[in-house]
Amino acid sequence: MISILDYDAGNIKSVEKALEYLGEKALITRDKDVILSSDKVILPGVGAFGDAMGKIREYGLDKVIYDFVDSGKPFLGICLGLQLLYKTSEESPEATGLGILDGEILRIPDAPGLKIPQIGWNSLSITPGSKLFKDVPENSYVYFVHSYYLKSRDIKDVAATTDYSVNIHASVERDNVFACQFHPEKSSSVGLQILKNFIEL
Questions:
Q1: Confidence grade of residue 73 (pLDDT, cut at 50, 70, 90)
Q2: Of 16, 91, 173, 183, catalytic
Q3: How far apart, in Å, are the Cα atoms of 110 and each of 66, 71, 146, 148, 180?
Q4: Which of 10, 81, 100, 106 is deepest in the core (most CB within 10 A)?
Q5: Which position among 16, 24, 79, 169 bears the catalytic label?
Q6: What is the pTM assigned to this prediction?
């Protein structure tokens, strides 16, 4: 079973639906015992970094996330869920994120002809051997909705990049921790393949 962490963030139901479409039992929960007994955990989310961390701490989910990651079982962050894995974000300078991975969350720089937030499809440059992108062709298109992006401190963590005003680290994986800035649950057959790869880890 896969637990989807419930901290009042948007876009949680669409992740549940995508997993069910793939035949995987998913449960939206903030119950510690259920989460820790799950095979895998997903931290989805749409919203502001500071507000989200406030809710995660209010519900005690920060400690549960640390314990689950320490267990070695696969953990996936999606969109805001990727950003929350880092310690700081320019969106909410006063807030402290989970700090599980090392890097910075920065605002996408303004550029002529580009709208921020980025809303829409963009192609990926995939790091060979990345587990999340098994059987996903190079330059596949996925769906983004974001104003802030990851600059990973360790390039070895980067599983895929894209370009939108700046080079964006669009997906990372380190040991049992995986994350995507884009929305696999909204990225058609490519996104379903990525979620299938996560299910099969």
A1: very high
A2: 183
A3: 35, 40, 13, 11, 22
A4: 81
A5: 79
A6: 0.97
